[in-house]
Write a structure and sequence with these properties.
The structure is a single chain. By secondary structure, this protein is an alpha+beta fold. It contains 25 helices and 22 strands. A seven-stranded mixed β-sheet has the order 10-22-21-20-11-18-19, with helices on both faces. It has a six-stranded antiparallel β-sheet with strand order 2-1-3-9-4-7, with no helix packed on it. Helix 1 packs across helix 3 and helix 5 packs parallel to helix 12. About 5% of the residues have low confidence.
Length: about 625
């Protein structure tokens, strides 16, 4: 029996959606030929629909009953089909089969298989490492690195294991772990994580966590476990299938016994078929997905909008989601009377022209956007990049420094206490400060900040009006997180979050019976996107892995449309409830008419058809819906 069911399953899976569409088109044409008698065929054309649409339904019902005694809506449909054929009502059987397969196709189109970005995460895992032993360097598979091994990492390489730097200075892009777009300066004694990228200086580190204990492997396991924990919502017709089957068989049996007319019993089975009930949910979801698409959302999981309608809390990643994720120069201050702010800005842009550091590139980009003339940028001489510190060069015969406080201290340059207070203020605001010096004298500073998206504050305000609580999750420091949260009007903030921390916040909300939505854009957000009841990824600035982990993708990154998506999901659920109420009411009315003999199987099937059409029309109203 097991071998037989496996063969039947393979047969049903053959051809996929394309086969289903072709069969439905042919079946629809055959039903038109049957009802209007368009062609002189030696058999009723409705048999084509029975074979193409009905047989798969009967086989699926058989497989479910035999393998798991799983009673779904297709069991009742199969009974109605067989009974209709037995008494010669071929058109009724074909029409019921056609309507049910149409509902199944819509279900297939709206409920997609879960997608995981595990493969992409695995590709981030470094394959090799440089081990230093007895003063000699050797390349070995990353899996062979052991705790306390000395590992050398060159510029541009991905760090193979977690460890602590013992010599060298550098800047590391930690976006894979923290989501923050700016690199972090590292030197002896600082921790580094596997999967993050060394950008500039070479360094040596002592391995602390290797193999399955490394950060990147932990994140892979988090995504896998989070995906497994998200249950799919079962169609309401299938949830009620057992009771529907029992009720239908009981009503049909009692009617046959009471009247002695099998045709009335068959009519009850036909009108009991949950055609409109099956169509009620997928048609509304399809229409809502169409509406969401027009507003920049790609819905990747069919039941995501159903889950979104129950959300009471939305957790936001900061960088690239509520903020632009790109640093901008927000202030320039000169300490020298002989050098204006614009002149200092230009000198700093000149010095950073050859820099590969994201902050240096940001200075050049912002200067060009502000003044629009690259001719103002002088050529640098003797350019030297100091890893983890900044840059040094000669401009018009003068030595120019731009970088961190450590860079200026290295050259014996001090800053007056009055200016120190200004710098401290900007740092407390969560900004990054580039200090400058000309010929061993402190010249001033530039302030760079990640700016809040224009629409973010209004979005947060509208979410609160919808009784949805916004929460900020960020890998950034406490000060920066608090400043951004205050600007946006968000009260609940979690700073310094690693992937497992974001996951813990979401799980905590779920334990308190709260439905939680996560909005993020980075690789580090993937576990949280998977674990959340609904995950929404920023498609424009987001990583491929975040997109793979999400249920919904915000293609154009316009977070201002999030409130509309929430309102749409609630409207969709209202439409589904109306559809279900109508279809159930129609069923009971048709049953009463069938018991009294007013309806025969063909008319009963037509009543069901009309009910299904009305359900589809009501769902279609969602396509252009928007709250006024």
């Amino acid at each position: 029996m097991k071998a037989l069911t496996e063969k039947l399953e393979r047969f049903l899976e053959w051809g996929g959606t394309v086969k289903e569409v072709i069969f439905l088109v042919i079946s629809g044409i055959s039903l038109l030929i049957s009802i209007f008698d368009l062609l002189p065929l030696p058999f009723d054309a409705a048999w084509i629909a029975i074979v193409l649409c009905g047989i798969p339904i009967v086989l699926e019902a058989f497989i479910g009953l035999v393998t798991a005694f799983d009673i779904k809506a297709d069991v009742l449909v199969s009974l109605a089909l067989i009974a209709s054929v037995c008494i010669g009502e071929d058109f009724a059987a074909g029409e019921v089969a056609f309507i049910m397969q149409l509902g199944a196709l819509l279900e297939d189109l709206t409920v997609a298989k879960a997608r995981a970005g595990i493969e992409r995460l695995v590709n981030l895992t470094p394959q090799t490492a440089r081990i230093i032993s007895d003063g000699r360097e050797s390349m070995v598979p990353a899996a062979r690195v052991r705790v306390k091994d000395i590992v050398r990492v060159l510029p541009g390489e991905t760090i193979p294991v977690d460890g602590v730097i013992i010599s060298g200075q550098t800047s590391v892009n930690q976006a894979v772990m923290t989501g923050e777009s700016l690199p972090v300066d590292k030197s002896a004694g600082d921790e580094v994580y596997s999967g993050t990228v060394n950008q500039f200086g070479a360094f040596e580190m002592e391995a602390v966590k290797v193999g399955e204990d490394s950060s990147i492997q932990r994140m892979i396991r988090l995504v896998q476990s989070a995906d497994a924990g998200k249950a799919k919502i079962v169609g309401i017709a299938d949830r009620w299938a057992t009771w529907i089957v029992v009720a239908a068989l009981t009503a049909a049996g009692l009617t046959w016994i009471a009247t002695g007319q099998p045709i009335r019993a068959v009519t009850i089975l036909v009108v009991f078929c949950p055609c409109a009930l099956v169509l009620a949910t997928p048609t509304a979801i399809m229409a809502a997905i169409g509406n969401a698409t027009k507003h920049g959302f790609l819905v990747r999981e069919g039941d995501a909008l159903e889950r979104l309608s129950a959300v009471s809390k939305i957790t936001f990643d900061k960088t690239g989601t509520l903020t632009c994720g790109v640093p901008r120069v927000t202030a320039v201050k000169s300490f020298l009377n002989s050098c204006t702010e614009k002149e200092l800005y230009a000198l700093c842009a000149c010095a950073e022209q050859m820099s590969e550091h994201p902050l240096g590139k940001a200075v050049v980009r912002c200067f060009e956007e502000t003044y629009g003339d690259k001719k103002e940028l002088l050529r640098t001489e003797q350019f030297c990049m100091v890893p983890g510190r900044g840059v040094r060069c000669m401009l018009e015969g003068k030595e120019f420094l731009a970088g961190s406080r450590e860079l200026l201290e290295e050259f014996g340059i001090t800053i007056e206490s009055g200016h120190e207070q200004e710098i401290r203020f900007h740092l407390e605001q969560g900004s990054t400060v580039i200090l400058t010096a000309i010929d061993k004298t402190a010249a001033g500073y530039l302030v760079l900040s990640d700016t809040v998206r224009r629409e973010s504050r209004d979005t947060v305000k509208r979410l609160k009006e919808l009784k949805v609580q916004p929460v900020l999750l960020t890998g950034d420091n406490e000060n920066t997180a608090r400043i951004i949260a205050e600007k946006l009007g968000i009260e609940e903030v979690y700073a310094g979050c690693l992937p497992e921390d974001k996951l813990a916040v979401i799980e905590s909300g779920q334990k308190n019976k709260e439905a939680v939505c996560m909005v993020g854009d980075g690789i580090n957000d993937a576990p949280a996107l998977k674990r959340a009841d609904v995950g929404i990824a920023m498609g424009g600035v987001g990583s491929d892995i975040a997109v793979d982990a999400a249920d919904i993708v915000l293609v154009d990154d316009e977070v201002k449309e999030l409130p509309h998506l929430l309102e749409l999901s609630k409207r969709m659920m209202m439409t589904i409830k109306c559809n279900l109420s109508f279809s159930m009411g129609l069923n009971f009315l048709a049953i009463a008419l069938a018991v009294t003999g007013i309806l025969n199987p063909v008319v009963g099937a037509l009543v069901h058809n009309a009910g299904s059409v009305l359900v589809i029309i009501n769902s279609a109203l969602l396509l252009k819906w928007r709250k006024g």
